[in-house]
Amino acid sequence: MNLPDHAEQVFATLATVYPHAHCELDFQTPFQLLVATILSAQSTDEQVNKLTQVLFKEYPTVQAMARLTVEELEEYIKGVGLFRNKAKHIAATCQLLLAEHGGEVPRTREELMRLPGVGRKTANVVLANAFGIPAFAVDTHVLRVSRRLGLASGITPDQVEAEVTALLPEEQWLDAHHWLIWHGRRQCYARRPSCSDCPLAAICPSSLAKGAISDA
User: Fold this and answer.
1) Of 6, 70, 92, 213, which is least surrounded by CB within 10 A?
2) Successive 10-residue mean pLDDT values, the chain, 216 residues
3) What pLDDT is stored for residue 3 in this prediction?
4) CA nearest to 7, candidates 137, 158, 173, 187
């Protein structure tokens, strides 16, 4: 398999199937996206959006949210997993943004990753979606789908990020991130992927291998 040609086929198909793919977290500012992305770990975007609809209405800015105690913040976000740790991280991040960044969300990965609760994936989500800075975030869907489609062989997010970004120009990283997430949420499920009606079945190594086993 010629990997660049294969990748071009995969992404061309995904672009056709998901022409309107976008970030499904609701936000109006970089700060709100930062908070929503921290909350999204081990939770669904749908659940996060339900909580932030209330949280952001009452505390839309870092200055407003910084007035909440950790315990008060917990009450707003207790519908997501690990909410106590997330409340501590968000509260500490608010204070750090005010103390060191003038209340603004920084625009570099290094500065973002110094914020409590912010890893490389969250930093990349904020860079790409809030600021339009080329970055490729690898969550569980991107990792799984990239490996199944033969775009990457790495087993860690950093490895998959390096492999997939090497196949694409920087200006396509954000779109590719969204295409892979949408495909993972709508077709290539973690359990029982819907291969029989997948638009990529004819060129997907995982689907083809499954078919060979079924036909044996």
Assistant:
1) 213
2) 91 98 98 98 96 98 98 97 97 98 98 98 98 98 98 98 97 98 97 95 87 40
3) 85
4) 173
What local confidence, expressed as pLDDT, does residue 212 receive? 44
What the block records as the tokens of 113 is: 């990753």
The two three-digit tokens of residue 20, written as one number: 């309107």
Length of the chain: 216
Whole-structure pTM value: 0.93
Residues 6+ apart with CB under 8 A from 19: none
The predicted structure's pLDDT at residue 208: 77
Q: DSSP characters for the chain?
A: --HHHHHHHHHHHHHHH-TT----S--SSHHHHHHHHHHHTTS-HHHHHHHHHHHHHH--SHHHHTTS-HHHHHHHHTTSTTHHHHHHHHHHHHHHHHHHHTTPPPSSHHHHTTSTT--HHHHHHHHHHHH--------HHHHHHHHHTTS---SSHHHHHHHHHTTS-GGGHHHHHHHHHHHHHHTS-SSS---TT-TTTTT-HHHHHHHHHHH-
Q: How far apart are CA 112 and CA 119, in angstroms?
A: 8
Task: Tell me the catalytic residues.
Answer: 121, 139
Convert 172-211 to b/e letters by CB count within 10 Å (16 or more is b): bbbbbbbbbbbbbeebbeeeebebeebebbebbebbeeee
pLDDT value of position 115: 98
Alpha carbon distance 4, 100 (integer Å):
43
